[in-house]
From TrEMBL:
Residues 46-112 form the ISXO2-like transposase domain. It comes from Araneus ventricosus. Coiled coil: none annotated. PANTHER family: DDE_TNP_IS1595 DOMAIN-CONTAINING PROTEIN, SI:DKEY-17M8.2. This is ISXO2-like transposase domain-containing protein. Pfam families: DDE_Tnp_IS1595 (PF12762).
Amino acid sequence: MKSKFICEELNIGTATVTDWASFCREVCQNILIWRSGKIGGPGIVVEIDESKFGKRKYNRGKRVVGRWVFGGVERGSNNYFFAVLENRTSEVLLSVIKEHILPGMTVMSDCWSS
């Protein structure tokens, strides 16, 4: 939904709409991270992936300024985990995997470079 539409419908300023959108985004992020837990186990398939969330500088080029998020989802259930990372080195990713995924599972990934 566009900010302009919300401003006109509710008769409020763009700064207020931006603040509320930021607040709602932060609440969703906190709930996802708070509900993250250990997943996997014997015979369970866990899919993992990473993404960088942010904006491109001046809306040009490929470089994105933002934060890395690493997550995993257990196939056939609603169990998941998310972790916000400072960098995505293999050491950091392996420590997150050990922290959030139980032993004995099968891990599926898109073969990221890390």
